[in-house]
Records
---
Amino acid sequence: MLIKILFNRLLQAISMAVAVGSLTFFLVRSLPGDIAYKVAAGRYGDDGVSTEAANAVRAELGLDQPIFEQYLNWLGNLFQFDLGNSLVSGLPVIDEIQHQLGYTALLAVCAVILASFIAIPLGLLAAKKPKKVIDQTSLYTSSFIRAQPVFSLGLILTIVFAIELNWFPVAGFGSTEFLILPVLTLAISLAAVSNRIVRDSAIKVLNSQYYQFAKIKGLKEPKLFLRHGLKNMAIPIIAFTGMQFIGVIEGVIMIESLFAWPGIGHALSHAVFARDIPMLQGTALMMGILFVFINTLTDACCALLDPRGEKVKQGENA
Amino acid sequence: MCPKVIKFSYHKVFGSLFILSCLLLNGCVKPPKENTIVISGPFEAINLDPATTGYIFQRLEVLQTLVNVSQTGELTSGLATHWKSVDQGKNWQIQLKDKVLFHNGKTMTASDVKQALQIAMRKPGPLKLAQIKTITIKDDLTLNIELTKAYLPFPSILTNYSTAVLAPESYAQNGEVNQLLATGPYKITEFTPPHRINTQLFEQYWAGQPAIKEVEYITGHRSESRAMMVKTRQADIVYNLDPASLNSLNQASQVKVNLTEIPRTIMLKLNLAEPALADLNVRQAINLAIDRTGITQGILKAPNSEANQIFGPVLSQWHIPQQAAIEQNLATARQLLQQAGWHLNKQGIREKQQQPLKLNLITYANRPELIVIATAIQDQLSQIGIKLAVNMENSSAIPSGHADGSLQMALIARNFGTIGDPLGLILAEFSSLDGGDWGPMNWYNPQVSALLNQLPQQTNPEQYRQTAQQIAKLVMADLPLIPIAYYQQSSAVNQAVEGFSFDPFERNFNISKMSVVNHAH
């Protein structure tokens, strides 16, 4: 059954790649403004952008070719696994994405893991005595943190940990110490929501009839929680974490900008301004594939934890 | 309700983990290395090509050009020792420095320079202004360059980063730059586009050995981040800082803040084909409605940088020292509009023949102060009855709007220092009705054009200065561009760095003249 899910997802990923790339191409081409000028500004900067530079870019990149011809070229290259070169830097798109998406993925994975380490215990503590001090404090703190733009949270952490305590560097990349502040900022922001999901999920399970029945039946706490609580409350948490992971990759731009982190969010914003179509297509395509992968992983984890849905389907098919 | 195992472990485990992390992480920041400096700026190095990223590599002293510019704007010797024209600017002889080595250890020859210039000619850049016809090699250290027509500012074109000399091994077959083998005192050791460049002292450098051994350039996208980097000693030099960050850095004990006037002017570009803007009275009214003091003090936090002419004090040949300041005078501005036939309607907007005086102004996001200034101007013009719509664009909208004629007004920060002597740019943009992408639009003054065309032949410096200032006066009388403020480049430097000076022409960080006195915390 799992193989069937994976096969279906592979087909989805391929069709999604073509659809996302095509959509990006036509949407970018429909934006107002002359692409040659935008690319020239991206390449030569404010002081170097001119009509002469734009004409040179147009001639070099064949931007005066019919749009459909350009699209077919891209599609032909895609089927040869060639994402082309960036219109701005001239470097292969795959190299740029590998570099930048790699850094964003590292940031996102670390942030989601750290967020889980913060959110799960906090959520369970809050669920232990709902509407009491810990739960209420967690609610107000979470709401306060979520109300902050992630940028200002990052600034506060930088002022405390980089300027006052001088524990971590302010910005940059290349070694572990540069990772800590951006990860901490993202993780706190994510945990502010996910601890409430954990709390709600835990309360639902702990108050459920099957949990209460197991308790009355005489099962002791560690075994009771591990056997009947953990698995049941994990399913919505895993599903939510998967969504959060996707959200982080999409919305990490402010963190990357603040901490001078060379991620895909910042690269993508520059590509939009410069109308760097191959870069936009390549990034959208790779992110689409990544999202299909994360969703598949989330579904597979949920299916492993709770095989009931699959058994029902198998029963229906029998 | 909650299992005991949870109740117990989380408090203890997390408490212990927190204390342990604090202990481990305290002092996580590595101390700076000896004789190494870290520079952070907002600009991204997108590739190795001098035509696109040369302005960063030149500042980092990786690239060198044939001719240099001193901090006061004079042309000085670079990789060329001498240059001369035997026929008033059509044929040039360039004498190269001897024993200059590229970063791959090979000696620079006239043939290498010829190849570098030929490749630069194929790419966009100011070299096209010179219209080179042929480049011939006289001997190993001498080049003859023939231009299509006489062009005396030619040597100043050779100061631009796009004309930097690279070793032939730097280029691929198609002229793309694969590796940057140049002649500067620093060579690239690691290039992680677009965020980091690491360089190291080139030990065979032809002009001695600087004290700084290694340099790291980090793209710091946000001004706040760069300010904090220099405050915590993570960076030694940062530049392009916003006024709020400057206030905070001024109070930091180990940081020195500099404001350097550069040849960049914030100004309004006007399309004189627009019926309203074609009238000098309207242009003068706009000029008088602007509160330059308010803009420089309130927005730019740079008092005394109000512009009273197009060319700033750094461009000493073109700047008129005795020119009076332009004070805001709303009464005269209103009177000028009235004289021009623009009367106030019931909505408080000027109109003429039932056409309201509504204009569009575009500006661009890369310089965040421009949008704030644009909205201030919008408010100031509304006080004399001009309705201005402000649109935020990409910088390419300026040349694009100039080319298709759609631009009405634009707020720009024009750099006159991209080549050593601005004559090349001024000649190209101020002597014809076409104007320039970043210059006048649909404006022509035959007197200015005639004087400009005399200037390249002028060899007497005093005569040159007088003619240049006469041109500047005529331009200001016509107002095809309205000056707002002169740009002051902000930078902050660690007190441990000695020998720092900010190059107003933004060509050089002067790393090779610096040293670090005490890099310990």
---
Amino acid sequence: MITTYTENIHDIALNTFEVTCFMFPMDEWEIEEDELEYPDGSTRSIVEFEGAAQGAMMINPNDSLLTAIAANMLGIDEPSEEEKEGALCEIANIICGNTVPIFAKDDKICVIKPPRIAEQDEDAATLFPNLHHEKVNVLLDEGIVEISIYVEQD
Amino acid sequence: MAINILVVDDSAVMRSMIKKTIRNSGVEVGEIFEAGNGQVGLDILAEEWLDILFIDVNMPIMDGMEMLARVRKNPDTVDLPILIVSTESNPERIEKIQKLNAGFVHKPFTPEILRERILEALGVLESQ
């Protein structure tokens, strides 16, 4: 069986959300249409990487998921904006750190740079032009996250 | 016996998460100290009685690998149990960590895995 990059990213993301935030995967048919709130890009985390693989990952959760990530990771009911952004960056770091080796060209170390919150007007396609792009939506019981990876390929 | 722990990570969220997971692991915990980089970690280590350290790899000012090397150079802490917490999967990097007599916790981790690694590092469980 051939596993595609998007399947790998999806599985890594699901495992990260399950282990770190106690969330569970959902199928689209399990969610009511009016609850299917796709991310609007208002809070996104970018993690760049270099070394054995070069590129960047962008994690874009919807509002309900963003709050749930911080609440579950920190064990608090009402996380602040700063806590939400910090938790999103940490999730992005874990997902990216586990994903990048899939794209590694050799045995060199993959250097994962510190995650950051994207500016509102930052466009990943403009930031990382000419890179191979894979995108996957992950549906969870607490919300939806869109994960994009931009990676240099030969 | 309750153990004193130092968590060294530049992410406040990750420090909170590690602390929460340690408390959920069933290990009897005394005090948990926190540091945002290796230098602050070394300062706390010089002042406090600690049973085990959790160290992140990528941090500003002093990263985890440098902190680990410095702790091992000090005769007082040469055998102190240490766990490196990272998403790292490069075998060379992991081997380097193990050569410095430190355990490795791969992110993401469950309370059960953390408990196992802590007990291994403390010599209560035999490492696999």
